[in-house]
C-alpha cells in the first residue's frame, strides 16, 4: 500500500500548491482505487462488505468521470426521482469524505474559512466549499438540497450558486407529519421533476419512479433482515463499511444493483460463524479515520457495529401508487426531521428490533441537533436498560478530534460493558458527557 500512500502525499502537495490544476490527478486516484478494490479486495473483510466498498468507489469514480451524469445534492436528496432522468446524485457530504481520503480536508477547510466562511459551519460543508472555492473541483450543471436535517444546507448551496453559478432547487421539508405537509412537499417534488425535465431534456416517466419505489421497499426489507442476522453472526467489516452502507442507502436506493448486493449479503452472512461479542448500535455520523475507533470496530470478534441509525433513517413501506406523496412522506418521517423526541422513538424501536448490548452516539462538532438531543436519547434508552456512550469529535476534520480522550472514554465504557456493569455505564456516560461539555464551554 506504500504506492497508494505516496500518491496521496503527491496529490495533496500538488493540490495545496496549485489547487486549480490537480482535478485529473484526484480523479485518477478515485479510478485507481475502484480497480484496486475489484482486483485486491480489502483484507479481512467479508465478501459483502468488499462488494459494497467496490460498488461505492465505482459509483463515485464513474460519476465524476462524466460531468453531465450527476447533480450535487445533500445526503437526503431524493435520489429515486433524480435517477428517473438517468442522473446520479453525488452528496456533498460523501464527496467531502472522499476528498479526506487524500488528507485534503484541512487545506479545504482552512481555505473556506480564509474566504470568510464561519468556523462554526459543519466541517463536511466547509471541506466542500473549500474544494470548490479553491478551484480544485469542477462544478456540475445543477444541484438540489433539502432543509433536512442540517441548517447549513441552504446557506452552502446559496453560496455555491453565488460564487460558482451552480443553480439549485431547495426542497423545504415541513416538520409536521400531516396530510397538508405531505401535499406541500409532494408538490415541490413534482415541480423539481419538471425542472429536471427542462434542464436535461429528458421526459419524466412516472412508471420508472414507481418501479424505483418497489425496489426500494424490497431493499429496505432485505436490509433489516441483514441487520437482524448481523446481530447474530460475526460479519467482518470496518468502520468505513457502515459509511459506505449509508451512502448506498441514500445514493443508490431504488436501484436493482443495490438490491442485488443486499440480497447477496443476506445469503453470505449466513455462512459466517455465530457472533459471541458485544453488539453496538451506532448513532449519527461515522468518523471513519479515527484510530481508536478503527482498532475496536474494524474486523474485531469482540465488538461489532450491527447497524447505524443514519443508514436506515426511514423504515416505512412506501405506497408506489402515489410516488410523489410516498417520497414526500418518507422525507418528512425521516428520523432526522422534526423534534429529537421523534428520533429517540425511532432509535428505541430499532433497538427493540436488533437488541444491541450498547449504543454509541457520536456527536459531530458543529451539528447542533446531535449534541442538543443526546440526553433525550439517553433517557429513552435508560428505560430499555440499554447503556449508552456519547462521544464528541469531528466526523471529518482530524484536527478537531482528540484520540486520547476518545480512547480513554471508549475503553472504560467497553470494559464496564464487558463486565456487565450496566448501572455504572449509565452513570459513567452521564458524568463524562457533562464534564466534557463544561470543559468545551469554558474554552
UniProtKB/TrEMBL annotation:
Keywords: Iron, Iron-sulfur, Metal-binding
Listed cofactors: [4Fe-4S] cluster
Signal peptide start and end residues: none
Source taxon at top rank: Bacteria
Family: Belongs to the FldB/FldC dehydratase alpha/beta subunit family.
PANTHER family registered for this protein in UniProt: 2-HYDROXYACYL-COA DEHYDRATASE,D-COMPONENT, 2-HYDROXYGLUTARYL-COA DEHYDRATASE, D-COMPONENT-RELATED
UniProt-recorded name of the protein: 2-hydroxyacyl-CoA dehydratase family protein
Organism: Ruminococcus turbiniformis
